[in-house]
Structure formats: structure tokens, C-alpha cells
Amino acid sequence: MIIVGIGFLGVLVGLFGSLALIGEGEGGLATIVLALTVLEATVLVGLLGLRYWALVVALVVYSFGALLDLLMGSFLGLIVSIIIVGYLLSISGRFE
């Protein structure tokens, strides 16, 4: 699925964002961003198998991720999250 490839781009952005936050001394926020990034990677694997749990978690995670991206000023991450949420909503009938 193309969405998984786009999702892994978002994972890379999250990893770099968390490293930048650590460098700026924002360890608490960096931990949250890193945990969210790991969860995103796990969900992407579930999406490959068209699992319903992965769809639900992905919608929650990417919506929350979009909010964090907005707050952090990561507009590339925000755009990726919005694209993923929109696409998942459009194909939600395919999941078991």
C-alpha cells in the first residue's frame, strides 16, 4: 500500500523531530513524540494486513500526531498525517 510508504515518511519525520527536541533540552516532549512514532510504525504493519484494529488505532494516532505536528510547527509531518487520515477514511470499508 502506498499509504504505508507515506506513513513511514511520517515515522522518519517523527524520529528526526524527537532527536531535535532532545537536542533542545525538551526530553519530556521528545519522549512523547518518540513513543507516538513507535506506535505509528506498529500500526503501519497492521495496516499492511488490513486489520480493523490498525485502522482504528491509525485514525487516533495520526489525528493526535497531526495535532502534535501543528503544535511543534512540523508542517511536513502535519501534511503527511492529514493525507493519511483522509485516505484511511476513504478506504475504511476494506478492513476486516
Task: Describe the overall structure.
The chain has one domain. It has four helices and no strands. The chain has helices spanning 2-23, 27-48, 52-72, 75-90. Helix 1 (2-23) packs antiparallel against helix 4 (75-90) and helix 3 (52-72) runs antiparallel to helix 4 (75-90). The chain crosses the membrane at residues 6-22, 29-54, 60-89. Keywords: Membrane, Transmembrane, Transmembrane helix.
List keywords for this structure.
96 residues; mainly alpha; membrane; transmembrane helix
Low-confidence stretches: none
Radius of gyration: 13 Å
Distance between the termini: 16 Å
Helices and strands, in N-to-C order?
HHHH
Residues in helices, as a percent range? over 70%
Q: What's the rounded overall pLDDT mean?
A: 87
Tell me about the largest β-sheet.
none
Strand content: under 5%
Number of strands: 0
Report the structural category. mainly alpha
- The total domain count is 1
Question: Short description, anyone?
Answer:
The chain crosses the membrane at residues 6-22, 29-54, 60-89. This protein is an all-alpha fold and 96 residues long. It contains four helices and no strands.
What topology does this entry show?
Blueprint: H1 2-23, H2 27-48, H3 52-72, H4 75-90
Helix pairs in contact: 1-2, 1-4, 2-3, 3-4
Keywords: Membrane, Transmembrane, Transmembrane helix
Transmembrane segments: 6-22, 29-54, 60-89
